[in-house]
Amino acid sequence: MSDSPSMASERARARFRVNGEPVDALFDATKTLLEVLREDLDLPGTKHGCELGECGACAVLVDGEPVLSCLALALECEGRDVVTVEGLAERGELHPLQAAFADLGGSQCGYCTPGFLVTAAALLERRPDPTREEIREALSGNLCRCTGYNQIFESVEEAARLLRARRTEEPA
Amino acid sequence: MSDGRFDLVGRPRRRVDGRGKVLGETRFADDLTLPRMVHMKLLRSPLPHARIRRIDASEAEAHPGVLLVLTGKDVPGEYGILPVSQDETALAVERVRFVGDPVAAVVALDEATAADALALVEVDYEPLATIATPEEALTTPEPRIHAYGEEGNVHKRAAFEFGDVEEALAGADLVVDGVYSYEGNTHLPIEQHASLAAVEKDGHLTLWSSTQCPHYVHRALQKVLDLPAAHIRVVATPNGGGFGGKSDVFNHEMVAAKAAILLGRPVKICLTREEVFYCHRGRHPVKMRMRTGVKNDGTLVGMTLQTLLDGGAYGSYGVASLFYTGALQTVTYRVPRYRFEGCRVFTNKPPCGPKRGHGTPQPRFAQEIQLDTIAEKLGMDPAELRLKNVAEPNSLTANWLRIGTIGLAECIRRVVDASDFTGRHRKLPHGRGVGLACSSYLCGAGLAIYWNKMPQSGVQLKLDRSGLVTVFSGATEIGQGSDDVLVALVAEILGIEPSDVRAVTGDTDLTPVDLGSYSSRVTLMMGNAAIQAAERARALIAEAAAKRLDIPRERVGFGGRRVFDVEDAGRGLAWREALVAAEEMHGTLGTVGSYTPPRAAARFKGGGVGPSAAYSYSAAVVEVEVDPATGWITVPKIWIAHDIGRALNPVSVRGQVEGSVYMGLGEALMEEQAFRRLPARLSGALVHKFPSLLEYKSPTTHDMPDVETVLVEDPDPAGPFGAKEVGQGPLLPIMPAVSNAVYDAVGVRIHEVPITPDKVLKALDDRARGGPGRYGPDGFPDVEWPEALRVPPPWEGGDGNATNDPERKRAAKLEKVKRT
């Protein structure tokens, strides 16, 4: 939302990368990363659900690690690499996690989905072949009220299979 | 679709809106912005019950960045979702009725300024006595929370008797009499409600809102704003979860619309999570007394049920909720005689309304536990007892509900087999147990919430030479997959791909009326309307193709994006060619379809709640491990079978089943919309115990067990291609199945939801002291019941009318006088 001149507390500037692109942003110093992404950088894919860091809907990756953007100040991102749900697909092609969530019922209303996707993406970077327990643990900070989670677990497992297959096809 | 074989129906598919959701491109209400948009916040009452003496908004109005402050007098029109409960105003006019009741609205250039300025609105309250519980409501007629209702703080009472139940119970070999309690809980959609209102360039108002029922919001706005309905547009944005929580009409929707008109600028509001807890309209806390009589062989002979509903501060859907607590007990099992008495009271808490299962999970909890108790006393297997009593297909119930297909017996057999229930029930080591429970739910309410003879769902189709089919429906996508159902049905009938069809839904300007995404009505009602519209389009195209191919119309088939000769499939037209031929023959192409539910069999007053074109059925087995030292309950696995009629998209169906199981498990084990008194030095007000996601506990990935889902498909003639509902029914058996499993594990009966460790420990302690080993309410409060409407069941010579309805008697007398 727009910052009215009347309210503007101290303005802050931060330079960081979002979804691989350089950002040079000027914003109210008290703004969270979530607010700056949604309101200043035109990236509304990241959602808010609780304002307390409890629901995981606002998760983004900062330097590859899941971070609750409602609890992080945008200022803290100076010089860092931020990835949001908008950064997962490449030139319109769905990330294997996105394809699996869409095909296997991992996403219903879709509101918690961005947070689950980026959190799962970080897991698969770390653990290409996670067990069900590791998936449960990695996603335990993300609440979903629609699915009952099992189709989400299966989506992550399917995406892991796809990614592993892709890696074997394209040896580094 | 050709030769009765399906190309799409029944096959797992990516839902049509799936891509947008995983890309983060679905635009929810709070994602919308408009040029010159400003922001609104609501000031909410800090007191549970008070008269407003005076409001001074001058300081807030003068605050830099503030554009407008509104109070009750600015938007005084009364509204309410039910015609009989027009008891809300957009902002409190002279009375606040719960902590969180909106009092004033501030619109400012940005959200933070609006929030800051709320503190500058001075409200002088005169506190009134707080009505905190249903018992207090019954015994405290003054002060009245509302001037309407039956008397004192009793909102509504109902009583029906279907045959002489006391006679039936007197002839029973065993009567089990129990009292049960169900704590309230809330929907907790992860998306917080948001709305954006704007006066558009034609001078008409548009409201984008996270609502399940744009049609009802449209009706309320025209009333509150006193504008022609044709000058108001309501667009339902995709809901980030609904579960019933966005099916009412909300204060913030009314106020944002008013503010946009007054300012001539777009006004947006997004509620905080705390405010979502105040909007509530969730599960009613219900106290219940149930008596069930059986023969020694397990045959049910009669049942009585009393319910007392804590309605909270406003009517909402509450009158319907009240009747629903008494409606569906007879749809699962043959109950030859039945009496229901129910009462809803007002209290100073956020209003209760419809949550997934609307009014039926509470009595289902009581009934399925009571059946478990009966099975034990008779020495019967709980599954055998239920199978013995399953209702007949194509029959009428004692309370005049018409059952169509019923796959309940099959559901029971399937979960019992899959879980080896019979081999493990009463046989597992101490601390482990299995419990069984069943349920049923309606596929759309037979009656609209306001009386009318128009269709409950309308669908329009536009087709043209481009090959695109656009389907318009007022139904709302709340995550359940209704857009996908709509598109798939149309594509199936026209033999094209879902990607050839675009859905435009939930927009009162563009789409025909559909009452909304509630009461599990959409697949059946919208689906049937869509099929009718698509069949009509198919007929137009078939006529043109027949002429072009020079074959009789009956030989025209549709499939694979072609329209062809079924006797020589190589001869045919590509889909676009067929549309060109049809447009040449008929001119511009468009069709409509509509759906109106069949007339109910019940003729008595109050018989309008419960009838449906079809009923879904579920059975569940829950396995638990209970630690006798801590009372902690772990659920390793749940088996559920659901009679869906036909699964249109099995991926979505499974999602609805398991999502229901999940939500039911949350209600069973942890979720509660609970209240507490602040200390006296802090006003002593009755406040929500924990209006935050941090403390309102809901199941995480760690709490969710493996679920084995079985779909029972016996197509129901009333459903689209035989489909029945799945969004709500599978939630219902979970809570009683957990309670029954806990009994099997450690031998104590928990007659109150949620089933928390402290209650288990208290019941274990009760048993250790020689008590019955039970936790639950001690008794049912004293309610003065009205004389029951006596309606003889179909097999006792009834015709669906009450024999003692005073209004009916008067009408009959008048008729007699006229004749003589």
Helix count of chain A, per DSSP?
5
Q: What is the molecular shape of chain A?
A: globular
Helix content of chain B: 25-40%
Largest sheet of chain A: 5 strands, mixed
Please give the radius of gyration of chain B in angstroms: 27 Å
Instruction: Determine the mean pLDDT of chain A.
Output: 94
Indicate the low-confidence ranges of chain B by residue numbers. none
Distance between the termini of chain A: 44 Å
Largest interface: A-B, 60 and 67 residues
Assembly level: heterodimer
Shape of chain B: globular
Q: What is the terminal separation of chain B in angstroms?
A: 61 Å
What Rg of chain A do the Cα atoms give? 17 Å
What portion of residues of chain A belong to β-strands? 15-25%
**Average pLDDT taken over every residue of chain B:** 97
- Strand ordering within the main sheet of chain B: 3-5-1-12-9-10-11
Overall helicity of chain A: 25-40%
Structural class of chain A: alpha+beta
| Biggest β-sheet description of chain B | 7 strands, mixed
Task: Describe the protein's architecture and organization.
- The complex is a heterodimer of chains A (172) and B (820).
- With 172 residues, chain A is an alpha+beta fold.
- Helix content of chain A is 33%, strand content 16%.
- In chain A, a hairpin with a 2-residue loop joins strand 1 and strand 2.
- Chain A is globular, with a radius of gyration of 17 Å.
- Chain A starts with 10 loop residues before the first strand and ends with a helix.
- In chain B, 28% of the residues lie in helices and 24% in strands.
- In chain B, the strands form 9 sheets. In chain B, strands 3-5-1-12-9-10-11 form a 7-stranded mixed beta sheet, with helices on both faces. In chain B, strands 32-8-13-14-15-7-34 form a 7-stranded mixed beta sheet. Chain B has a 4-stranded mixed beta sheet with strand order 18-26-27-30, with helices on both faces.
- In chain B, a hairpin with a 2-residue loop joins strand 23 and strand 24.
- The longest helix of chain B has 28 residues.
- Classes of the chains: A alpha+beta (172), B alpha+beta (820).
- The interface between A and B is large, with 60 and 67 residues.
